[in-house]
Amino acid sequence: MKAALLVIDVQNDFCEGGILTARNTDTLFYPLNQTILAAASAHLSVMFTRDWHPPDHGSFIGQGGPWPPHCVQNSHGAAFASKLAIPESSSILDKGVAHDDDGYSMFVGTCLLSWLCQNAIDTIAVCGIATEYCVLESVRDALRNRFKVLLLEDLVRPIEREAGDAVRAVSEMKELGATIVKSANWIKLAQKLKI
Predict the structure, then answer these.
(1) What is the pLDDT of residues 81-132, one digit of tens each?
(2) Sheet arrangement for strand 91-95
(3) If you ran DSSP here, which 8-state letter would residue 133 be given?
(4) Hey, which residues are catalytic here?
(5) Homologous superfamily in CATH for domain 3-192
(6) Is the model's pTM score more than 0.90?
(7) Over 95-112, what HEC string results?
């Protein structure tokens, strides 16, 4: 097994004080950073995704979409949260760059699939924001592409426009074949895989 940690969209606009804040992001950073650093110290691949939308992105309300403008390229809101640990060895993947690409899945319109294959990665641990949107869609596509997926359930945060969205999303990911685990278990796995 060769594993990678994928951290989805921990950006200013989705964190406390942002334009589209996910729930309880203030409790996310300590356990997330511990997990990131454990993976990096075990020499596992770590990739960070970010929404990187043009100013006229099709998902924005002004363009007929459902969301307020967020994560606009080169803006403060699109930057990674300042509390997020990003090891120098990490990779960064931009998504939702095209006007008509909603950017939910980290596999759509990106080089992620080829990067995973080139690095012979067959197992991915997924965490980040938002549980019922980018995390869910990314897990769906990872499973379609026959990767083993571990959802780090304590390291995801939902927008929760409707009550129960997060629970439904996690249930769907489990039903589709993702393994639901705590980040502490991922840290133990990372230590076992340490080179």
Answers:
(1) 999 999 999 999 999 999 999 999 999 999 999 999 999 999 999 999 999 9
(2) 91-95, 45-51, 3-8, 123-129, 148-157, 179-181
(3) I
(4) 9, 95, 134
(5) Isochorismatase-like (3.40.50.850)
(6) yes
(7) ECCCCCCCCCCCCCCCCH
